[in-house]
Amino acid sequence: MKTQFFRTLRRLGFLFLAATAPIAVAGTSLVAPAHAEAPALKGGTLRVAILSDMTNFDPQQFSTVNFHLIKNLYDSLIEYGPDGEALPSLATAWQIAPDNQSVTVTLRDDVTFHSGAKLTSADVAATLAKAADPERGKNVYATMSIVKDWTTPDEKTVVINFKAPTPQRQITDLLQFTMPIEAAGIATVETVPAGTGAYRLDSRAVGQGLTLKANPHYWRQGQPVAEQVDFTIFSEDASASAALESDAVDIIYGGTSRSAVRLQDAGYQVVRGPGPLVQVFRMNSTRPPFTNANFRKAFNYMMDREGMLRVGYAGLGEVVALPWAPASPAFDAAYADEFAYNLDKAKELLAASGLTPAEMSNWKMLVWGNDEPSVVLSQILQSTLAELGINIELDVRQGAEYTEAQLAGDYDATFGAVGNVQKFPSRVATNSIYRVVKNPVLKDPHPHPDYVAAIARVNTTSGPDADVKAAYDNLNRVLVTDAFAVPVNSYDTGLIVASPKLGGLALDIDNLFVARTVGFQ
Amino acid sequence: MRKLGSKTLSILGRLLASKGSALALIFLVSITLAAIFADFLPLNPVAQKLANALKGPSATNWFGTDELGRDILARVIFGARTSLVTAGGAVAIAALVGVPIGLVAGFFGGWRDAALMRFVDVLLALPAILFAMAMIAVLGRSQAAALIAVGLTGIPSFARITRAQVLTLRKRDFVTAVEAFGGTATYNMFRTILPNSWSPIFVQVVVLCSVAILLEAALSFLGVGVPPPTPSWGEMLRTGKSYLHEAPYYAVLPGIVLTLTILSFDVLGRALADLLEGRRDAVIAPKAEEVTS
């Protein structure tokens, strides 16, 4: 019985090894962003491979596992172009008051929800009310902190008032983040989508996938191109790649950089969006040795960013020393040069810290075992630290065990990605390590008052441009000086790898999947 | 009756006489020696050279390099140490706990037998891999935790095999004779019955070694084995599978070594079982003066 089980276990081991035998070799290279426009596209059924199931249909729950759905079931009030330019969507106009204390939004009058009801200002107001509710607002709640109240003078107009003069980019971020939910459907939006999007939910098989059908009353002319989108969940990135290569699917959304690079070399299209994540080494500056500023600052120079990007993400991304994507107004490429890998400078700072080798080694690095790049990056840093005489252990945890520790701030240091790095700079404070209040890692009162002040300055500087830039520069300098979080590289979330027969591929500013423009060539 | 030393030599000679078992034995001895003396070899399993990542087998790196530019051969050899130490420790735990349980249950019978075997049944009912993962969740991720977890999953097999052997021997004349001479229950269990039960137990030791190595590799493959950068065959398979397209040797070469190790233990176990099966009638009995003293 037990022996029989063990025999079976051994046989399974042999089977696994046998299965790994037939193997092909492929090289890698970098990819360039693709263009969204494609002429004369034909409709049909798009077959999209995804790597995890969705959680629910609430567009305010901005989890990456929902990224393939949100912009297909819902529309935003405005959209951003790839260069960050605000573009009309459900709103035809948005007029910011001269004192930057309010914005007047004018809605299109030809938009209907999937239920057939017309979009009105009451729906936008109900959506804002949900967003402002600490229980129901989810990921949009933090963005609503700038909002004082709102009014609906008529069916097509919404006026949003702010608590203080608010920078223009922060206002447009709010409008882009606002995806109207039908007022009558708000209570059930987690289970029943209630949007205006180009597609409607047709069916869902939990754990297997779902099907969207084109919205026949969609307001954008000529869209959606494809009549149907079938999402299929693959548990392994390699399986999704095999499905694409065998023409069982047309697109992989959200695959790994490594597979994307390999498939691009094999002739598939790779689309990178403007909203990457940034990998950040987070240090708990309330615990020794990270209470020591010089010790923390040394990490700015310990990161072999080029090597980490190449090994962890197949070179797909950019090295960064600040938590910004190029689309961010605070992006400054010079910092990556200033804080390039330099062990001599790291040694100087370590010496200036006054800590003994034993004190510098008295911590563990928490590692997300499910995330291969995190494991790789952690081992590279561990090796660099050993070169400097700092010997630490990796505390590798899987799944929820890691997430729980990370969200609760129960760690000395860890690598973790941050998002919202392509929008208004203070939005970085929506990530746990960068929060200015109720920071789960650094706790209250915040141990870095200069950082809190720098975020406040960015939030309250609405002009002129030189002042705005000075506020951004100040924030950047504080980030590398306080150094409680050291960015390493940006990498793509929501990568698209597609068959060459498809056209019209594009990602939105947050790298959400937009199917309405995609068709067959 | 034969003395154990001569019996062992005889078994070893017969093992070496067979091609299959001789090859298995030579492979296992070689890999064990490599694991023991790995520190004296000019190999470093943790030294990184990022610029040298994922290079194929060469004169410098016979098995190629991994994603961090580390020498895969070095990691395979040091990984053998991880696997063998875990397997050895796990088998020791399983035998030290399982054999006494089987002895007591089989010798006394009654409520002791029922209680002990129900405990064993509970262990047996738990899937080994899940049980090991649960243990690691409690103990934390380390080689010691993996060793204990794998060891605990092996207890039932030792307990049941020993009990079965004791039940066979319990009513034999030489056991009754020892009792008639006044031998205590403890004496009878450990000096009369146990020496005559070694054959199947020893075979089980060999079999469990392969199972333990595979289970340790499975735990590492699932990401709950020994933490990096300590090399482990299972961890190499886990990471290597992500690079199957770029560097197939990364997963395949450690996989071949793991396969050969398990195969060798298996071949050896079967050969031992065949050899020892024919010797079960050769009773090892205590000397009369030992019983009466």
Provide a descriptive summary of the structure in words:
The complex is a heterodimer of chains A (521) and B (293). With 521 residues, chain A is an alpha+beta fold. Chain A contains 15 helices and 21 strands. Chain A has three domains: 45-53 and 197-274 and 494-520, Periplasmic binding protein-like II (D-Maltodextrin-Binding Protein, domain 2), CATH 3.40.190.10; 75-188, Dipeptide-binding Protein, Domain 1 (Dipeptide-binding Protein, domain 1); 277-491, Dipeptide-binding Protein, domain 3, CATH 3.10.105. Chain A has helices spanning 2-19, 67-73, 121-132, 168-177, 237-245, 257-265, 293-302, 305-313, 334-338, 343-353, 357-360, 372-387, 399-407, 449-460, 465-482; strands at residues 45-50, 78-80, 86-88, 91-96, 102-107, 147-154, 157-162, 199-205, 209-214, 228-233, 251-253, 269-271, 277-283, 317-319, 364-368, 393-397, 413-418, 485-491, 496-498, 502-503, 519-520. Chain B is mainly alpha-helical. Chain B has helices at 4-17, 19-36, 72-108, 110-125, 128-139, 143-169, 173-180, 185-193, 198-221, 233-240, 248-277, 288-292. At the A-B interface, helix 1, helix 8, helix 12 and strand 16 of A face helix 5, helix 6, helix 9 and helix 11 of B.
Secondary structure class of chain A reads alpha+beta
Number of domains of chain B: 1
Strand order of the largest sheet of chain A: 8-9-10-1-11-19-12
Percent of sequence in beta strands of chain A = 15-25%
Assign an overall shape of chain B.
elongated
CATH level 3 topology of chain B = MetI-like fold
Secondary structure: helix percent of chain B? over 70%
Unreliable segments of 5+ consecutive residues of chain B: none
Q: Largest sheet of chain A, if any?
A: 7 strands, mixed
Give the C-alpha Rg of chain B.
22 Å
Identify the overall geometry of chain A.
globular
Task: Based on the coordinates given, report the CATH architecture of the largest domain in chain A.
Answer: Roll
